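Hi there. Long-time user, first ticket. I'm pasting a complex I've been working with (about 465 residues overall). I'd like to know whether the download I got is complete or cut off, because the file seemed smaller than I expected. Thanks.
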Amino acid sequence: MDTTEFLIKLILVISVFGISLLIAMYSTYAERKVAAFLQDRLGPNRAGPFGILQPVADGVKMFMKEEIIPANADKFLFIAGPSLMMLTACMTGVVIPWGGELTIGRNTFNLQITDVNIGLLYIFGVVSIGVYGIMIGAWASNNKYSLMGGLRASSQMISYELAMGISIIALVMTTGTLSTKEIVEQQSSWHWNILYQPLGFLIFLVCAFAETNRTPFDLPECETELIGGFHTEYSSMKLGFYLFAEYINMFISSAILATLYFGGYNFPFIESWGLSPNAVTIIGTLLFFGKIFFFIFFFMWVRWTIPRFRYDQLMNLGWKVMIPLALFNLFITGIITLWRNGAF
Amino acid sequence: MYSTPYDYLPMAIMAAVAFGFVAVTMAATHLLGPKRKSEVKLDTFECGIESQQNARFPFSIKYFLIAILFVLFDVEVIFMYPWAVNFKEGGLEGFIEMLVFIGILLAGYLYIIKKGALKWE
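Hi, the file is complete. Here it is re-exported in full:
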């Protein structure tokens, strides 16, 4: 890898990082506006026109608040918890294919930062480290509510990770690769995986809600029982990191959903419009972001529509419904794929 | 498809960028905020009453059980990934072999359900 190539990668990394932060920032604003819309309120409308400067105001407020580390807390782990959460949330964007190839002059740029043959495995590896961020922060606080919240969060996340893993295996059986780029390219035009894996998609979607701790699975921070859950003792930007990481995770989950099941940057009949390759790439990327925004909206829509589960219901759903359903999906996928390939 | 070590370099760059951001933000919030600490403020929060003892107490064994079961099942799931990538080459034979494997897995799964390991009250 020479210097120019390295610089291009660096620019791409920084722009993906910046875009994730920006989208997460405005997701907090969008969440409040969507909530307001669904509950027939106005929502934030004071900071700037229509309140669009609200996330900036919130950020500044977070920075200017006093940083409190409880006397009984483990100081190092107390800081390490939110840092780890934020770090893992930011790291997954690197293998997501944001678009096709862009040709400028004689150079072609790939809009995916890196395409490794274990892309999916990398995503799940990094996402599962996120559990440690919650667990470390919760334990380090030395607070009973935090501990309960942390225990709930880790049990919930690991339980749904199983079903998520099995639903992905069914997808990998049909695609035959773990590279995210190849998975997207196989879904050209209208051959989206949602058509071949509807049940797998449903399982993945439910697990994505559980993994990001969103309603109806937001028991870790269930405020009526546990005050703030695992971040009860946190203040200033450390609290900000926990809340912010949730939005980045939501953005990344939406991107993964769009990549794996909704064709990534593909769109039906885009080839037949007779556009130049660069235009197709740019439109594809915009459409990809459109799909991501739809899923982010969907996350919010569900949050303000459905009440949360009771803990035993949550665990039963994870272990006794999702896992058998995912195995059933795997079985059906195997049979159909073999039948289509003429094995019997 | 083969990946070279260079393909993994951007991941390290991303990790470095994210780490830098986290470190700078943590330092900034530490320096910017006011520092008016008092004994009561640094006490553990407990609904307004005086805090009772330490939070390092034994908790329900159920959570440990879930964690152990997760490790067991997740290792099995990891075994399925290489098989799933090569599923089409494996054909019917490979599929039946995996069904045997999943069958054994399911037997263990039914066992833990019968034992009541997943029962929450």
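A couple of notes from our side: The mean pLDDT of chain B is 84. The first helix of chain B runs from residue 9 to 32.
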